[in-house]
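Journal club prep, shared notes

We agreed each person brings one worked example of a sequence with its structure written out as tokens. Mine is Glutamine synthetase. I'm keeping it raw so we can talk through how to read the token line rather than staring at a rendered picture. Sequence first:
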Amino acid sequence: MGDPDLPAVDILREEGVAIVAGSVTDLAGVTRAKYVPLSRLGAFTRSGMGVSPSWSVFCVDSGIAFTPTIGVAGDLRIRIDTEDLRVIEAGVAWAPGVLADQYGEPAVLCTRTRLAVAERAAADRGLAVKMGAELECTMLAADAGPATSEPWSPYGIRTSLDRSAFLVDLATSAERAGLSVEQLHTEYGHDQLEMSLAPDTPVATADAVILARIVLSRVASRHGLRISFSPVPFDGAAGNGAHLHLSLSDADGPLLSGGDGPHGLRADGAHAIAGVLDTLPDLIGVYAGSVVSPLRLKPGNWAGATACWGLENREAAVRFVAATPGNPHGANMELKLIDPSANPYLAAAAFLGSALRGIDRAMDLPEEIPENPAQSDIATRPLPLAQPEALDAMETSQVAAELLTSDIVDALVAVRRYEQKTYGDQPPAQICDAVRLAWTC
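Then the structure, token by token:
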């Protein structure tokens, strides 16, 4: 952990910071925080702030999915690092936290630590990893209803300039917070917005996703808006994705370009894509496991609901982006079926772990599907898209336990089964209404 020396406090005080937030994102994908006065920054980094172990199994509606190992007893600590601190609004600094036990060791359900383990596993194999993130969200009115009622023009200059004051504030606030934004645009869905973040190491990328959600939500509130990160905010409306991009390099260069395989893939790059595809049925519950996720995860929604890959294929679960002059970051694979209800640390760990598993096992890359999978003659492996089937697959999966630990899988299943039991029999519109703001920061 960084040393919370006096200069760090003095710098924050000069910037007007009065309180410091440290957050963790639970297995339901909800980000929760504790605050201390700036004078207590040292305690936040050394011993941390106490939280119940039940924080990890809080649910979208504040229920608690107690498990045989998580009950009313016990205590954990949220610890932050001064090097991660960002000023997020007037008077407030924020840092991502790790969950630790009373002795400073990582808690078994700390998803940020789990992603760090996957990142180290790649380094141990001599691989450098970069991830990029795209955040789709929906602008809402202050009452959480639709932000606008006039006709929407997807990607339209009118729909974006109508919100220019908001977008300008968003860009300047993101820069002030140290967030590297690559682009902003209004999206296909009504009142939908997308922010793309620059690629970084996996843990830094997941941290940036949380920071981006915070900045988006706080800036929106200054403009009389709210932001929904629900996979489907309104029944029948366009859904929100949380796509992750992954690239891998070794001492000889990128794995996804420079080779003699399809579109320049090297052998290990092909194995990595094969590994991601192979684990999809086991990990849908990680990537898109909420009660509202199946409303988005359907063929025809450009949500990657088919277990296949293809060059720039937006209906494939894995969209391959080749190394071309139009792609300054180089070749990468995009996992499209992730939605904002997923814990971004856990989704990134599963994505990276699956790619490494494919390399370790030299998995064969399936045949590419270059067209809409619904119109292809090439057979694909079925995915458990309904929530009960996705949870059943994850709960019994040796792969999920291998990549994420059985403790995390068991707790995640408990959280999502709570959602299924509470909301699963309700009409889609009612489900959408119930969780529309669950993932808003």
